[in-house]
Design a protein that fits this description.
This protein is of the alpha/beta class. Helices cover about 30% and strands about 20% of the residues. The strands form 3 sheets. Strands 10, 11, 12, 13, 14, 15, 16, 17, 18, 19 and 20 form an 11-stranded mixed sheet that branches. It is globular. The protein binds beta-D-galactopyranose. Beta-D-galactopyranose binds near residues 150, 153, 314 and 320.
Length: about 700
């Protein structure tokens, strides 16, 4: 693993000196030292300053600011600045501007205005990156390269003529013959059979719904186009600076959406190309469950890097600026949210941005150094966060381990949300969020995994929704169960193959045998909730239920109202050494908790006992030392018992008891050979199978 050296936790933010007169730079760096900043992302949107007109370069300002940062020991995460081409580029290459499905051109004045398939864009970006990499190599090389910015943030799919040509090449590569393409897209429906490659267009607009298999391929093609842009830059950087790690910032919850993973790009396909996984996290400040959304995304980031430490590249130090109303952060929240990322495996905490801008679209997005300067609460909290990160620096390099994985598959997610389904309100993010939330509230750490990945290290695997699944992947999951794993499958899964064509036979075609049941028909209900009975416990389901016929499975929970009253809602099927459970309903969080409590206990997964509601607990360990993180999300003081060791945040020795004020955080170090921090946490049942990380 390549990690920009720092000897502790990285701390810093985006730094845009190109927006400020030079006399401010000295003050910036002096204040960075006060706060303990040890890394900045430099010049993310500086292309028009680096290349003010075609082929005319200006690196002098970058040299000068680097010469102030380096002696101050502030590491440089140097951006390649390719996310926002200058106006001259757009005027010279109007055909590189993105075009929407309805034919509108997206022009300059914002950012992200380029078509990812455009050869002109790729050439110009490549030229810029080559110039940067040549100049900043050897002793002048940065600690980290930051490619582009949030790939696909503004334009996921472009529908311009260049994209159409590239898409034709992409489908030719994938299908080789038109017969195969016609079969995969099911073009005999509505008379769409293609007789020549040049008839194929991006799925722009039609009089009615467009072919879903074609749309699914367009999502794949667009995701690949962004990945290719990344890889093109990385190849150049590698050539000139082979030892400098390369990253780009992935995205997490973008405000209001629960289960807000970024859907534009298949991160499983991009992640292996980055040396360091980096994340931008902006959970909705008004969502009372926003911290669960954030945790879910942090766990995904750790999983994308196969458990290695990752970098929180951006978060808001205070108010954001793009919501209709942008509240500030209550006192303590900045520490709590930052330490939550560390608790889930981050070894670096960074912000957008160092100094709050005076102009532009984001001038009201609070900076680490806000408009009010060092007299503000935000600044005081930033300085205090810097001190806390130094105090917990020894956690850097340690890792988490999980016995439970949640499956996420971007391609299936895209297919699920293409419309024309029994209930188009069923979204991947929402079902995933409910399953994650139940596990989070039980205090269980989970990884995310790709369905086709090696799952043998996990005791329990949850597929909240796997609408589209290839037969081979279904067989892979069957083997996981047969060799002793527990698989929990959520509603509307195993229905179609990778081309969005319904699997043969009864629903759920790919999983029928594994789950030991047949779905007679889907019973979505648009508004009302139905009651679901887990023995004596009651919960409810909305949006979705199935008419299930058992064929080997037994019923674990039943529908308790509506036309399917008395029929199974949740089923359990023993297969080989393991079990496959099916949840044929959009269960609420309580329903998932009832289910998971039993499933986890039976699988020997430890559930920490006695964690007060609102307290988040995780454990990082390495080198014979454990660090237990306790974070209080409740709005009142809480007490945790059975905690022994040194609290690195408070600087105190704990013997048995920890008090946490609202937004309070403790990181308790203990040695694995000593008395366990929380006896109930350490008392793990021996693993039945699988390896460990
Ligand atoms: C991110 C972006 C940053 C900044 C931030 C805050 O999406 O990467 O450049 O715009 O949002 O608004």
């Amino acid at each position: 693993m390549r990690w920009p050296a720092s000897g502790g936790i990285l701390f810093g933010g985006d730094y845009n000196p190109d927006q400020w007169p030079e006399e401010v730079w000295h003050e910036d760096v002096a204040l960075m030292k006060v706060a303990g900043v040890n890394i900045v992302t430099l010049g993310v949107f500086a292309w028009s300053r680096l290349e003010p007109s075609p082929g005319q370069w200006d690196f002098a300002w970058l040299d000068r600011v680097s010469a102030i940062l380096r002696p101050a020991e502030v590491l440089i995460d140097l951006a390649t600045a390719t996310a926002s081409p200058p106006p001259w580029f757009a005027r010279r290459h109007p055909d590189a501007l993105p075009i929407t499905a309805s034919g509108q051109t997206l022009d300059v004045g914002s950012r992200g205005h380029y078509c990812p398939s455009s050869p002109a864009y790729r050439r110009a970006a490549g030229r810029l990156v080559r110039k940067l990499a040549r100049r900043y190599s050897g002793a002048d090389a940065p600690a980290l390269w930051h490619v582009n910015n949030e790939l696909g943030e503004k334009v996921v799919e472009c529908f311009c003529p260049t994209s159409a040509t590239a898409f034709r090449r992409w489908v030719q590569d994938r299908y080789r013959t038109l017969d195969r393409l016609n079969a995969a897209w099911g073009t005999d429906v509505w008379s769409q059979r293609y007789s020549a490659w040049d008839q194929i267009q991006p799925p722009r607009l039609g009089p009615g719904p467009l072919n879903p298999s074609q749309r699914l391929d367009y999502r794949r093609f667009s995701s690949d186009a962004h990945r290719e842009c990344f890889e093109l830059e990385r190849a150049i950087l590698r050539r000139y600076t082979p030892d400098v790690p390369v990253t780009t910032n992935f995205m997490g919850p973008l405000s209001e959406v629960r289960g807000g993973f970024f859907g534009g790009i298949d991160y499983w396909s991009l992640a292996p190309s980055v040396d360091v996984v980096a994340d931008d996290s902006y959970p909705d400040p008004l969502d009372r469950l926003g911290h669960i959304n954030a945790a879910m995304n942090f766990d995904l980031m750790r999983s994308l890097g196969r458990g290695r430490p990752w970098l929180l590249m951006e978060q808001a130090p205070g108010a954001m600026s793009w919501l209709p109303v942008n509240p500030g952060k209550p006192a303590g929240r900045l520490l709590l949210e930052s330490m939550q990322a560390v608790a889930r495996g981050a070894d670096g905490i960074m912000f957008f941005q160092w100094r709050q801008a005076r102009s532009g679209q984001e001038k009201f997005a609070t900076g680490m150094l806000p408009h009010g300067g060092t007299r503000t609460q935000t600044w005081r909290e930033i300085v205090s966060l810097g001190a806390t990160l130094r105090a917990v620096g020894e956690v850097a390099g340690t890792t988490l381990s999980a016995d439970v994985a949640i499956l996420i598959d971007w391609e299936s997610w895209w297919a699920l949300e293409l419309g024309d389904h029994p209930n188009n309100e069923l979204t991947f993010g929402e079902v995933a969020f409910e399953t994650y939330r139940a596990l989070f509230e039980l205090g269980v750490t989970v990884d995310f995994a790709k369905p086709a990945a090696d799952l043998s290290r996990y005791r329990v695997v949850v597929a909240p929704n796997l609408y589209a699944v290839a037969t081979e992947t279904a067989s892979h999951l069957e083997r996981f169960v047969a060799s002793g794993g527990t698989l929990v499958v959520g509603p509307f899964s195993g229905i179609v193959d990778e081309n969005d064509q319904v699997h043969d036979g009864s629903y759920p075609g790919a999983f029928g045998d594994l789950l030991g049941l047949r779905i007679d028909s889907f019973w979505p209900h648009p508004t009302e909730s139905w009651s679901i009975a887990f023995g004596a416990e009651r919960s409810s389901a909305r949006l979705w239920t199935d008419w299930i016929e058992l064929e080997g499975a037994s019923s674990v929970a039943t529908i308790g109202s509506g036309p399917l009253d008395g029929r199974p809602a949740v089923t359990d099927h023993a297969v080989g050494l393991g079990r496959a459970l099916y949840v044929g309903a959009f269960l609420d969080g309580d329903g998932w908790s009832s289910l998971f409590r039993g499933v986890l206990a039976a699988a020997g997964v430890h559930v920490p006992d006695g964690l007060a509601p609102g307290v988040e607990w995780t454990r990082r360990s390495g080198g014979g030392v454990t660090f237990d993180f306790f974070l209080n999300h409740a709005d009142h003081e809480v007490r945790v018992t059975g905690v022994n060791g040194r609290d690195l945040v408070g600087g105190t020795e704990l013997s048995g008891r920890l008090q946490l004020s609202p937004a309070g955080v403790a990181v308790v170090r203990s040695s694995l050979t000593e008395t366990p921090v929380k006896r109930e946490v350490h008392d793990r049942a021996p693993r039945r199978r699988g390896g460990s990380r």
